[in-house]
Amino acid sequence: MRDEALLNVSNLTVNLLTAKSAVRPVDGVSYSVRQGECLAIVGESGSGKTVMNFAPLGLMPTGVTTMLSGSVKLEGRELIGLPEPEIQKLRGKSVGFIFQDPMSALNPVRRIGRQIAEMAELHLNMTPRAAEARALELVKLVGISDPVARLRQYPHELSGGLRQRIVIAIALAGEPKLLIADEPTTALDVTVQAQILRLLKDVQRRLDMAMVLITHDMGVVAGAADNIVVMYAARAAECGPVDKVLVSPRHPYTRGLINAIPRREDPIGSEFRGLPGIPPTLGAPIKGCALAPRCELAVPACSNSRPPLVRSDDSSVLVACPVVNQGKAAA
Amino acid sequence: MNMLNPILARLKKMPRAALITIGLFVALGTFAPWLAPQDPSAQNLLEAGLGPMAAHWLGTDHLGRDTFSRLIIAANTSLVSVGSVLGIAMTIGIVLGTIAGYHRGWVDDLLMRIVDVGLSVPSLIISLAVIGIVGPGYWTMVLALALAWWPMSGRISRAVAVSIMSKPHIEALRVLGASPWRIYFGHLLPGTIGSVMVYATADAGTAALAVATLSFLGLGIQPPTPEWGQMLVDALPYLESDPRQVLLPGLALTAAVIGFNTLGESIALNRIPKPLTRRMLAARRLEVASWDKENSDA
Amino acid sequence: MIHFISKRLKHSLVLLFMASLVCFTLVVSAPGNVAVLIAELRGAVATPGYVEQVAEEIGLHKPLLMRYVDWLGDAVRGDFGISYRTGTDVSADLANRMFVTGTLIVGSAAIATLISLALGFLGAFWPYKLPDRVSRGLALLGASTPTFFVGALMIYGFSVTFQLLPSFGFNGPKSWILPWLTVAVLPAAVLSRVVRVGLEEAMTSPFVLTAKSKGLGRTAILFREALPNITPLFINALGTQVGLMTATAIIVEPLFAWQGLGDYFLAGVRFRDFMVVQACLLIFLTFFIVVNLIVDLAVLLTDPRIRRQWS
Ligand SMILES: Nc1ncnc2c1ncn2[C@@H]1O[C@H](COP(=O)(O)OP(=O)(O)OP(=O)(O)O)[C@@H](O)[C@H]1O
Ligand code: SF4
Ligand SMILES: [Mg+2]
């Protein structure tokens, strides 16, 4: 079973139609996650990470019409084209979700215990009483002290870190095979971030789940993930095993990202080494390479056609940059 | 002029049906004396309770008066009294509201406390209490309703005034030593009046209802001046034999109020995002399809 | 919690005091000489001497403060003086009339709550689809039709045309239906919009995305997640509407020949019977204050966020 990917996304394209505009926040992206594996998705804000993971599972805000194409297979089952009631059955049961902002992810007027227990009732067919017991177990599992009292509290009575633990408990309650965590630590205090991340890693390993971890933080990627997809302007720029991509990044954008991490040997007060320029605003897909205006290596041909993802000859890494790929081949 | 601009800008976004209804009401009300084909008070007991016919398009009431003419004149009655009520109420509300918003502090606290109390008591009860003490009459009605209506515009003008006062260019004017009079009359008052008028217009429907209700109760517009509420109550004893005389004024009033209420709702709701209409969706789909074509061409 | 309740009670008492001052001042400042009115009422010729005697008797010469204290003391004990018009005790009429108006308000509030929840949910379940448009159209119609016209239509439809229900009198449930429906139309319309808009706003909050991610369906999300969120809002709006029903009662009671408080108040206003106006006004104001108090306490119970602020 281990060889068969749990989630297999290929050539996924998402168009969002709103009253104001049409955008394509995901443009032909492919990746896969196996059981027990953790895939990190990194990229600048607005590069389409959230949409890419949520849209195929029908989790878009109201007022947006979603158009999907390509293929998303969960346990071999095609999600694209699946009617909403069928997808609804998968949410919570096969896939658990963790959100960026735990402060707003919980219903403020319902007790925490109910919000966890209803998952067990819904997906494990438990009686309300059994579900309460299960909720207690889960709250203990995510490391919350005084669990009995917590279950009777309301979200606003807890700190951000505790709330995120509750959200994790909810995500785990249906015993999903895949966990999608959308920037689970971004809204938290720095000290709490590490704890939550450790917790996530820990439960993922213990329950042998697959996890998709969306993040901005390269440090998080290095510590937690097996594979990585680097997104830039709705497309995958580079993807492959974390140890290869982080150690020897090849795509100019990945290099820029890794370069931007402050290093110990930096003199204090030295200039921040971010990528110059700003990311493009999404709308119609860009004809050539989206990075061209910001790229050091850009050649005129970059703006002509879209660079394909090409497997480098030595490894499992895929890079969408002909300049780098050809350079490598020539060398 | 800068008072009219925000109003015109908002008018463009409002539902057309509502604007047409309101326009019709205002036009009828304004030109009623020239539009009414007959004398609305001319009684003719020989022609009482007739159905529609060439001489009386909508028939006659129990005193033989021409219903069509009376309905039209009633629009005028309604328009004039609603206008007076709102005019007086808005003047009081804007003056007190801007003073509260300009001064803040205890003046603000006291005025807003009064406004809160005023808003929590139904306007019908306030105006009836006043009429009960002073005695009925046209101007009692107008003043009593204005007394019940000013807290609303008071609260809105205060909110608008506070937001205007906290704008950076007003701060700057103050720091530069502009006189309080200049700030008040040059910036605060014009800005507030424009915004409050839009809300007041939307509220006109409720005011029209109140005028009609008081007249229905016999404490507002007095006969023989025709008014919809009063026409309705006059015809009520003949409901069984001649329901038309009850229905017509009721429908006229309801139509006018629907116009104003639609307007009010569109003002209250325009911050909620609407889903795509089918036509927009089709347009977006075309847009997306064109992307794929470009790409395959490339 | 206790702290909040005691604070809120104190606030209500202050409001009650202000309400009593308003009622007192209103009558004291009324134009015309009350003593003359009473003298004439008693059938006597209002000679200056007799007027003087009446004034002495009802304490017109006492200082205002004393008159206020006397009046308030009487009012608290349920003595609202004598009607200037009929010469009877105002309080004698009140108990029965309060029962009539109470029946009207309770029944209408229940009907309005049911209808508004049904219409609001219908709209929120199929937003911008046909059921929503129908519900919205009904709400607009209900909020725009004058209550007296609604009453006339009810009588015409149910009593005159189909002869199903009695059009007047207060005798038994069958005679209550038309007045209940008439009073319920406006609040049902307004509240249905509160439910509809409140639910829509709640459905766009982030926790609804969480609920969706749990695999809950739209019905479950509406009832389990969104409904508890709009409950405080709804209770508040319902409180306002129940307060407004006193005003509607003034229109509807005479229409259906009910002898309630609204009818009493209206008669008082018509004949400038100050004592009746004063008594009814005081009862109405007290009613608003009590309703507001109950609303605040109910909101406290339904909204844990506020509950925490005060505990
Ligand atoms: N509800 C929406 N309506 C319209 N456009 C949207 C909506 N949600 C996302 N988008 C578009 O999709 C793009 C990608 O959004 P997405 O939330 O996936 O970015 P992200 O990579 O998750 O960013 P972040 O790191 O800030 O979470 C946005 O730039 C925006 O243009
Ligand atoms: S394709 Fe060209 S612009 Fe894009 S990353 Fe490579 S070198 Fe830079
Ligand atoms: Mg995101």
Keyphrases for this structure?
heterotrimer; B: 298 residues; mainly alpha; MetI-like fold; 11 helices; 0% strand; C: 311 residues; 13 helices; flat; binds adenosine-5'-triphosphate; binds iron/sulfur cluster; binds magnesium ion
Summarize the structure in words.
Chain A: Its main location: membrane. Chain A: GO terms for molecular function: ATP binding; ATP hydrolysis activity. The complex is a heterotrimer of chains A (331), B (298) and C (311). By secondary structure, chain A is an alpha/beta fold. Helix content of chain A is 34%, strand content 22%. In chain A, helix 4 runs parallel beside helix 7 (160-173), helix 5 crosses helix 7 (160-173) and helix 7 packs parallel to helix 8 (190-207). Chain A starts with 6 loop residues before the first strand and ends with a helix. In chain A, 46% of the residues are buried. By secondary structure, chain B is mostly helical. Chain B has one domain: MetI-like (MetI-like fold, Orthogonal Bundle). Helix content of chain B is 74%, strand content 0%. Chain C is mainly alpha-helical and 311 residues long. Chain C has 13 helices and no strands. In chain C, helix 2 packs across helix 3 (48-57) and helix 8 packs antiparallel against helix 10. Chain C is flat and about 85 Å long. The model of chain C has no long low-confidence stretch (mean pLDDT 88). The chains are: A alpha/beta (331), B mainly alpha (298), C mainly alpha (311). The B-C interface holds B 117, 120-125, 128-129, 131-135, 205, 209, 212-213, 216-219, 229, 232-233, 236, 239-240, 243, 246, 250, 253-254, 257-258, 261-262, 265, 269, 272, 274-275 and C 15, 18, 26-27, 29-31, 127-128, 140-141, 143-149, 152-153, 155-156, 160, 193, 197, 200-201, 243-244, 246-247, 250-251, 254, 265-266, 268-270, 272, 274, 277, 281, 284-285, 288, 292. Iron/sulfur cluster binds at residues 252, 289, 291-292, 295, 297-298, 302, 307, 321-324 of chain A. Magnesium ion is lined by residues 49-50, 182-183 of chain A.
